[in-house]
Amino acid sequence: MPSTVICVWLDVPLRGAFSYLHDAPLPSGQRVLVPFGNRQMCGVVDNSVTPDTIAPEKLKPVLQVFDALPPLPESLLAQVRFAARYYLHPQGQALFTALPTMLREPRDVRLPDRACYQLSAQGLAQPPAARSTAKLALWQALHEPQDRDALRKVHAQAAAYLKAGLASGDIAEVPWQAPELQVAGELALNAEQQLAVDSVAASLDGFAPFLLHGITGSGKTEVYLQLIARVLAAGRQVLVVIPEINLTPQLIDRFARRFPATKIVCLHSNLADGERLEGWCDGWLGRAGIVIGTRLAVFTPLPRLGLVIVDEEHDGSFKQQDGLRYHARDLAVWRAHTAGVPVLLGSATPSLETVANAEAGRYRKLVLNQRAHGSASLPQVGLVDIRRQKLVEGLAAPVLEVLQQTLERRELSLVFINRRGYSPVLACTGCGWTSVCKHCSARMVLHLSARQLRCHHCGACERIPLQCPSCGNPDVQPLGEGTQRLESALQRMLPEARILRIDRDSTSSKAAWDAIYQRVHAGEVDILVGTQMLAKGHDFGALSLVTVLGSDGGLYSADFRAGERLFAQLMQVAGRAGRAGVPGRVLVQTQWPEHPLYQALQRHDFDGYAAAMLQERREAGFPPAGFQVLLRADAPAYADAETFLNSLLAQLGELPAGLNMFGPAPALMVRLAGRERAQLTFEAEQRAVLHGWLRAQLPLIEQLARKAARGMRWSLDVDPLEM
Ligand code: ADP
Ligand code: ZN
Ligand code: ZN
């Protein structure tokens, strides 16, 4: 009769762990099969949990122990415990989010062969006949321990050779051991790069967070690679987290060429389940020297972790937008802290959160201000004032002219259309007034159908003004519109231009991207047209002109992060111009040429603009000056979502000092996938006040949600990026 009570996490939306019986204790991290309701589920044992006080005779037994793999490591359980607590998410679900799919399933999992092989004494004494070059090469290679992958690289006949050798006793299985580190093709660093490498290298034996602020093309990746070399040389592992869009074959090749003998694992959401499991286990079991991947890679257990790198740390794709809404950059910093190793956050346009941390002295800032390629200089940024221009199909004459000239010189242009779904904010074309809410610091959004301005932060409503409340000018317009038809108009106005449009569809697959690169590099394109996609780190070679259209919508947006995003995007697209010795030029069409954002862009002054934006955030109490949690509710009908939030409001009681609540208000994108979304915003200057209080409200929220209208769903978003 089983008698030991075992606590198990399951992938269910409930806050606690579940108790089962087994005939002996099981280690934490052990995967097991347990009955749950009328199903059988995979569970993970956690002995740090105190079991419920349920009479043992009511508990069900563990059905099976999945022991083909070792128990999941304590470090992973600790990371999940932290993430669940921080993101106010059920711990069982958080744990299963962190696992590769195959480890979530109610099945035992066996690993593919990762054994190593080497010649036995008998095999050593019998070199193959010199005629067989394949056998000779394999025999040579097997003087050192080799795994199957490595042998396959030596010769395609490896499998057959191995099989025969094992049968005859010429080859023996030996314990796995790390291959000798090889480092190929290191570049001589410039002074700034050297200083960055030296600073981090001097701090390898403890937690030390660094911001590597380097302009586009300044050689950040080279800095990473040289630091990685040192960490690998010390026998330790490196975690590199990068945005989805940057996980290109070019980047992986660059790593593989630099470290030809090191096992490099690449993890992302498009892998087959088996591949993902294999890579994850190679990290966990210590065989991979480098794990490089998108946000999910941040959960890969690495027993000998020596360095964490987050590239393009400002990138929005690090934030998971459903389930456990974690931020991979923040979890990466937590991991480095817990493991006692340095973490390097790299970007040309760091997030204000990171800038604020650097300013406060919590992160050390390393700067790369020079482009690594000697001759390339920074592009010249021009502002085209469209208040004094008649636009033809959204294009100002001077912009069209420069496009024409660039075309005549047969040089490549890029037209960047900023069209992120900015909700329309009203602006005065005369004095620059915008529709700011009287009750909070947010901007009110135009709702034409209701003939209203609505604040999506606090929920306030107002009538649409017939003239500017500040100067009386009747010309009050919604911002950020008028770029829709631009792409086809461009083709009509420049009929001889070979235009290539880049959108989400044309970039959804790797093959599509390769085709784009190929056409661009083969000189078959004159003008690239596209949206946000183009702002990321793609190297299209010699771009001589970048024009930016429709960016004003990001200046005065209902989303307080819009300015930060826009500035980062414009810095990044501007960074595409003027590479490889071709002087670049950037032209921005705007009705606010005197706006500090554009002025800073013209001076390439990230620091100045970041300081101004941080000041604004401090005044408004927005992150990083304060902390936010959103309670979102969505339902097929808006009223159902709102009713749930109101029922909660009625029962929340008094808020603790220092905590503010706004709403219910519609989300900025009210309708999404057939559902309508409302939200409450909680803000506090102290994170502990905010999280502690909300954690205490969870039972109430859950209880009210059970009584809410059918189809109503809710979630908490800690440190939300999308409003
Ligand atoms: P970033 O990651 O900052 O955009 P990269 O590391 O990709 O920059 O470097 C940009 C280009 O400059 C690459 O082609 C790289 O090979 C080259 N590069 C980087 N560092 C050096 C260096 N120290 N000497 C010469 N070329 C370099
Ligand atoms: Zn005005
Ligand atoms: Zn408001």
Automatic annotation (TrEMBL):
CDD domains: DEXHc_priA, SF2_C_priA. The keyword Metal-binding applies. Zn(2+) 1 binds at C428, C431, C468, C471. Residues 201-368 form the Helicase ATP-binding domain. Zn(2+) 2 binds at C437, C440, C455, C458. It holds the Pfam family PriA_C. It catalyses: Couples ATP hydrolysis with the unwinding of duplex DNA by translocating in the 3'-5' direction; ATP + H2O = ADP + phosphate + H(+). Keywords: ATP-binding, DNA replication, DNA-binding, Helicase, Hydrolase, Isomerase, Metal-binding, Nucleotide-binding, Primosome, Zinc. One of its GO terms (molecular function) is hydrolase activity. Its cofactor is Zn(2+). It comes from the Bacteria. The keyword Hydrolase applies. SMART domains: DEXDc, HELICc. Its EC number is 5.6.2.4. Binds 2 zinc ions per subunit. Belongs to the helicase family. PriA subfamily. PANTHER family: PRIMOSOMAL PROTEIN N. Initiates the restart of stalled replication forks, which reloads the replicative helicase on sites other than the origin of replication. Recognizes and binds to abandoned replication forks and remodels them to uncover a helicase loading site. Promotes assembly of the primosome at these replication forks. NCBIfam families: priA (TIGR00595), PRK05580.1-4 (NF004067). Component of the replication restart primosome. This is Replication restart protein PriA. It comes from Vogesella amnigena.
